[in-house]
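Protocol step 4 of 5: obtain the predicted structure for the target chain.
Materials: sequence only (see below). No template structures provided, no constraints applied. The aim of this step is simply to have a reference model before the mutagenesis design in step 5. Sequence pasted as it appears in the construct record:
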Amino acid sequence: MTSTENLSADSDAPRYVRLSIELIAEITDEAALKAAALAQVEADEYLDDDERVQSAEAIEVDPSGSLAHFIDPVALLGDVPGIELTQATWESAQVAFDPEEDSFEFEVE
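Step 4 output (structure tokens):
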């Protein structure tokens, strides 16, 4: 964990923090991931019909995009006292990755 700004605890003004997290997940069962993502899209009460169709099509085209349907920043920060989620964006993309390599840099394919 790193901090690049010195935030004063005495300030009453809201303080915003950008939290960047990078993860690599291995797809071990593409069919199971796609099926679960499609079920997640179907059950999502916040998607309208057009968004639901677009999401389902994207899942069929690129299984790496399926993972994004399981990311819930509200659940990640929802129980943290003194925090209100202001904005969130995320994406998933295939990367070139060698688990044997010690020095890995995120390179999107």
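Step 4 remarks: Residues 25-93 form one domain. The two ends are 27 Å apart (CA to CA).
Proceed to step 5.
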